[in-house]
Amino acid sequence: MTQAKPRAKKLPLKERYALLTRDLDWEPSYVEREKLFPYTSYEGIKIHDWDGWQDPFRLTVDAYYKYQAEKDKRLYAVLDSFAQSQGHLGLADASYLNAIKLFIQGVTPLEYAAHRHFAYLARYLEGPAPRFAALCQSVDELRHCQTQIHTISNYNKYYGGFHSWSKMHDRVWYLSVPKSLFDDAMTAGPFEFLISISFSFEYLLTNLLFVPFMSGASFNGDMPTMSFGFSAQSDESRHMTLGLEAIKFLLEQDEGNVPIIQAWIDKWFWRAYRMSALVAGMMDYMLPKPVMSWKEAFELYFEDQMLGGLFPDLEYYGITPPRHVEDAIAEKDHLSHQVYKILHNFSFAAAFTTQTPSEEHSAWLSEQYPGSYDELYKPVWDKHARTEAAGGRIFFQGLPQLCQVCQVPMAFTEPDDPTAISFRTSEFTGETFHTCSNGCKWIFDREPEKFVQAWLPVHQIYQGNCGGPSVPEVLDWYGIQDGDNGEYKGSPDQRSWAEWHSGAPKQES
Amino acid sequence: MAVKALYDYEFPSADRAENFGDDQLVYVHWDGNPLFCSAACFRVPTAMPFGEFVAGVVAPWAASDPDFDASAITRWRLFDQPLQPADDASLADLGVGHKALLHFSV
Amino acid sequence: MTSTLRQVGIDIQDAEENRPLVNAIKADNPELTIRHLPGLLKLQAAGRIVINRETVESQLGREWDTGEFQLAIVSYAGNFSEWDDDQIIVSWEH
Which GO terms of the molecular function aspect are on file (chain A) (predicted)? Predict the structure, then answer.
């Protein structure tokens, strides 16, 4: 072995960071501070010293671009080789792609929304350190949006449901769940946004929201999605740090901030958790080769790491675990089954397909959910299977009742009775509002003026705002094309897949 | 608790009754039938007689379940209160208002 | 500072190029447990996990900046209580 060369001389990391980040800030001389930063006081949060903000990554702009360029280089090498080798034929099954359709329709537009809002924070937060962290995150989120579009565009050449995702995100019923969550966060003040997206979404629940997609991709032969996912996740660790730093900074600045932050944690844990229900359904039902059950992921990533690790740390500041967390724990045996039932009932109006679990898949579910599946969920799937064996397919021939807050169809059951739907109502200015859970009702009652404005897709259809009164008119307005939707068995995706794997010579058209 | 904002925060409800004219939204839940993930939502005239509502609106939806038998519908409830509807009474007469929740069993 | 023995964790992409890094973390954290999930390695230890630049460099046989750790990490549980030119430490603070 040759002797290592002496390291090139450069300033220590801490000094480089101080010089290139904080020292580039200045005091305004001809504009009042309140005019320059008009949004950092009305939420009631008090900041005494913006320099108390720590960035453990101590990222500088030159290092940022160096590492991001390297990440992109690695990702695009994977994308090229996958496309050149017809890698899509090596997936576990074409039905796997339903999970990726849900991803590009539901998650990719959120990346873009996050890009926009972090750009806003990069302008309006008062301290130079959080401004720079927000700037990096804004650029990250744009990168995530773009790399996801690039990665998934390869599948759009061969499979349905990958077109028009941006339009769908703004219009389609199940996508109003993620869209309305982000709209709620973006219309809040800058500090609430930090607690909602940076802390609750990116730190508390990121592992539940993203890692299952990526491990699922890896296990089902989808190398490009796994690669962009992990490439994005490496940025995500930085975003998690921003979230954790934000909360600690705000809690340390003023004791009066503690109850405000606690209420935001209570609200945003439940908001983000309710949205993660879509991921629960995906994990347990949409992966031909399932990786880990929702229940196990919830226990590992949320109960062990967050309730067991993070919250004892935050207790030091007087923060307690989120309100209604016991309801989330109580339904971990039920959540994914109830959510996939919704998607299965309504996939005639979705840009993905669903199917009744096969016997093999059903056996896996039974093994993963010994306390609930055989008793409550299998009998219903068996009824679907019997109908299908006779040539039928049961859909819900109508529109569902939606929760005013999370906008998920009201399919969730009582924490202590998994056979009874949990109905909650509130009255506000003479009108009745329905919510799906104690958590969503609490959120509604806290800010009814905000949630009465919710754009509930079912009610909008009935108001005549979605292309017309009939299902074909609404689907057309949604941008859903024939074959994107419905049952997987017999769908265009399934037929193409069977043909590509039949070994018969291909007909050139 | 009011929404924290830099201005007077007041906006109308997106689904207020006036947006539906002479109609209203009504939710119907088939208690204890997990084939349906949730209650259904319908837009119907407030003056619609209950019998017509059941035969023309509820039954076609409930028939999504191949085992549905319309004659077996029983135990109507309006929210949590028992309801004994006469077929010719209108929804309005029965107190079934905008965004009311009805339950039935079979 | 009181020390805590609650679990901290680092998830690393399961890739050939990350193997020397994982070996270095193993060497410096004898209590470490590693769980394999599709595409990723889940490293966990009670109390803290430390990454030393020198150990990583001796595994890699080349110079390594602690900033390069950003290319390998997928997720973590804990808090970056130290991140300078020579060392990264993940721990809980309170």
Answer: monooxygenase activity
